[in-house]
Automatic annotation (TrEMBL):
Organism: Methyloraptor flagellatus
UniProt name for this protein: Gfo/Idh/MocA family oxidoreductase
Matches recorded under SUPFAM superfamilies: NAD(P)-binding Rossmann-fold domains (SSF51735)
Positions of the Gfo/Idh/MocA-like oxidoreductase N-terminal domain: 1-111
Gene Ontology molecular function: nucleotide binding
InterPro entries associated with the record: Gfo/Idh/MocA-like_OxRdtase_N, Gfo/Idh/MocA_oxidrdct_glycsds, NAD(P)-bd_dom_sf
Length: 301
């Protein structure tokens, strides 16, 4: 299937282009970018022109930040294209609900991707937890924003979500593996004095679940989830890539998250189905609604 990639930035180059190249299902048929291109692939500057001229391309994959993405997605859906959204699926929940309704009306596939759910340990963690009684869940997601988002000021602009940009990956795993729904009950958000979005967050949920997100961690990076149950303890390390149960390695492997996303998109298009789960974004929205605000030191890249 032919796919057009829109927004040739960090994640497009790091993950989407190699995942498409390695897949037997997909051909990268066009890019749309204000400045970038991919060698050997038709390059458009004008998105409307690509949609109008390349009617042979049925799928559009949007690798843009959340702020501009809704308008691009709506245009693609209304032009009869199947759409794959980077995470988070919208700046707001209303954007996601609107896109889902529009896709259904147009009879096209909408896939709101959560790449972390494709990590090696996630499916076996979900299977192990399915019949367990959970007593405590601790999420620690601490990374260096300068390393993962160098110079990307959009993360600190309204709609960029700040530390929830990585934190929502943790929430996408937690909401996938736990056998019960959870709800946020309290949050403390730390905003740099010169920025619009938080650089750290401390979240308390129902059912013994808590999470700490921090974007100021230099040196080793931490993406861990620990689940304590009445029948043992589960640890997910490295963003879900490595699963340990009661201290014993249970699953691990090389990165295959984006390969998994494109395989799933191929299945969805073939089945005429959509996959839009906004649950992780619900918790982020609730953190902004319930969170108390702390002002911390100004941040510059
Ligand atoms: P990025 O490199 O800053 O931006 C991606 C591309 O989007 C830019 O190169 C630009 O493409 C286009 N763009 C940016 N602002 C735009 C605007 N206002 N209007 C139109 N186009 C615009 O961001 P990224 O790190 O790739 O992140 C993009 C999305 O992927 C985010 O939702 C992020 O959460 C997700 N993601 C990122 C990572 C990561 O490690 N960075 C990992 C997983 C998921 P052109 O210059 O080509 O027009």
């Amino acid at each position: 299937m032919k796919v057009a990639l829109v927004g040739i930035g960090k994640i497009a180059r790091d993950q989407h282009v190699p995942a498409i190249a390695d897949s037997g299902d997909w051909e990268l048929a066009a890019t749309v970018s204000r400045s970038g291109s991919v060698t050997g692939v038709a390059a458009f500057h004008d998105y409307d022109a690509m949609l109008a001229e390349r009617t042979d391309i049925p799928v559009v994959s949007l690798c843009l930040p959340p702020q501009p993405r809704f308008d691009y997605a709506l245009k693609a859906i209304r032009a009869g294209r199947h759409v794959m959204l980077e995470k988070p699926p919208g700046q707001t929940l209303a954007e996601v609900h609107t896109l889902a309704a529009e896709a259904e009306k147009a009879g096209v596939t909408l896939f709101a991707t959560w790449h972390s759910r494709m990590a090696h340990g996630v499916a076996p963690a979900k299977a192990w937890l399915a019949d367990k009684t959970i007593t405590k869940v601790t999420v620690t997601w601490k990374e260096d924003v300068r390393r993962w988002h160098p110079g990307q000021d959009w993360v600190f602009e309204p709609g960029g979500m700040g530390v929830f940009d990585p934190g929502i990956n943790a929430l996408s795993i937690v909401t996938e593996i736990l056998p019960m729904p959870i709800r946020l009950t309290a949050a403390v958000l730390e905003f740099p004095a010169n920025r619009h979005t938080p650089i750290a967050a401390n979240l308390t949920f129902s059912d013994g679940v808590s999470a700490v997100f921090d974007w100021r961690q230099e040196g080793p990076q931490t993406w861990d989830i620990t689940v304590e149950t009445t029948a043992g303890r589960l640890d997910l390390h490295d963003g879900g890539a490595r699963l340990v149960i009661d201290g014993a390695p249970a699953a691990a492997g090389p990165d295959r998250e984006y390969a998994g996303l494109y395989a799933r998109m191929a299945e969805l298009v073939k089945a005429g189905a959509s996959d839009v789960d906004a649950t992780p974004l619900v918790h982020v929205a609730d953190a902004f609604m319930l969170g108390s605000r702390r002002t911390v030191l100004p941040f510059e890249f």
